[in-house]
TrEMBL record:
Annotated source species: Waltera intestinalis
Gene: hpt
CDD domains listed in its UniProt record: PRTases_typeI
GO molecular function: guanine phosphoribosyltransferase activity; hypoxanthine phosphoribosyltransferase activity; magnesium ion binding; nucleotide binding
Major place of residence: cytoplasm
The protein, known as: Hypoxanthine phosphoribosyltransferase
Record lineage: Bacteria, Bacillati, Bacillota, Clostridia, Lachnospirales
Length: 174
């Protein structure tokens, strides 16, 4: 089946919104250092762009998680594939994600990271699909609320492809 991408958010719209979030974070964390935690792979493109627009001191770390499988996924259990290199103790942490969909990944992850003793812990996501939520997750910074459609680009993949698109699109099948 042939597929094509319908543009949902242009590169300009995404860039402008990331700039706004960067400014907001810089204000909210004035006088502090923020520690950005990127959830691989999807969060990587957004985190790099966001970090460039934050004007307070920034440090970065990366983690990779995966769902256990369809059975346990419904219980919200995720497996850590690559853990953070550094401790979160007493740091002002912002978890950076590409999308919050069902909320399973982030609700589990935030609970786990909270146990590591950060001074503060917030969540920043480029996209949010509120209609799809199964588990409640508090999002502190949201780029865009989007409808319930499967999106790609800016880190988001369809079968590992399209992460490199500089805009957000919807996969459509001809
Ligand atoms: O709210 P949820 O329903 O849990 O879905 C959101 C999660 O799913 C995607 O990651 P994925 O596991 O596909 O890995 P990837 O980032 O490597 O693509 C996305 O990047 C979020 O981490
Ligand atoms: O809409 C989506 N696109 C790509 N990956 C995802 N993971 C959760 N939702 C999505
Ligand atoms: Mg992800």
């Amino acid at each position: 089946m042939a597929e094509h991408i319908r543009v949902l958010l242009t590169e300009e719209e995404v860039d402008k919104r990331i700039q706004e979030i960067g400014e907001q974070i810089s204000k909210d964390y004035a006088g502090k250092q923020v520690h950005l935690v990127c959830v691989l792979k999807g969060g990587s493109f957004f985190m790099c762009e966001l970090a460039k627009r934050i004007t307070v001191p920034v440090s970065l770390d990366f983690m990779s998680v995966s769902s256990y499988g369809s059975d346990t996924k419904s219980s919200g259990v995720v497996k850590i594939v690559k853990d953070l290199d550094e401790s979160l103790k007493d740091k002002d942490v912002i978890v950076v994600e590409d999308i919050v969909d069902s909320g399973r990944t982030l609700s589990y992850l935030l609970e786990m990271l909270r146990d590591r003793g950060p001074a503060s812990l917030r969540l920043c996501t480029l996209l949010d699909k509120p209609e799809r939520r199964v588990i409640d997750v508090h999002v502190d910074y949201t780029g865009f609320n989007i409808p319930d459609e499967f999106v790609v680009g800016y880190g988001l993949d369809y079968d590992q492809r399209y992460r490199n698109l500089p805009y957000i699109g919807v996969v459509e099948f001809d």
